[in-house]
Model the fold of this input.
Amino acid sequence: QMQLVESGGGLVQAGGSLRLSCAASGRTFSNYNMGWFRQAPGKERDFVAVISGSGGSTYYADSVKGRFTISRDNAKNLAYLQMNSLKPEDTAVYYCAAGSSRYYSETSDYPYWGQGTQVTVSS
Done:
C-alpha cells in the first residue's frame, strides 16, 4: 500500500498562488507517476497534471497549462503542484494520486489516492 497526504490548500483571491504538497509513504516513491486531479461540487474528478517517476516528463490539462507546475522531490517522497494566476473556476478539492500505468489522465490509472485538500478561489 501507498499512503498519500495532501496539504497546502486554502482560500485565495483570483490571481493569487498556492502550492500543494503530497507526502507519500509505503512504497518506492520514484517507481510511481504522481498525478493531480481535482473535483468541483457536482462534477467528475478531472485530470490536472502528472509527472513521471524520474521527474523527466510532465503533462498538463489544457485548462491549467502555463499556470500550474508539477514537480517532485524523490529524496523527500514529496510531490508538488504550484498554482499561479488562480481563477474562480479552479475552485475544487485537489487530490494527488500515484500510479505506474503507461496512461495517466484517467482516475482508473491510479490505484493510490490521498484524501484531498480544498482550494477555493474568490473573485
Summary: The two ends are 40 Å apart (CA to CA).
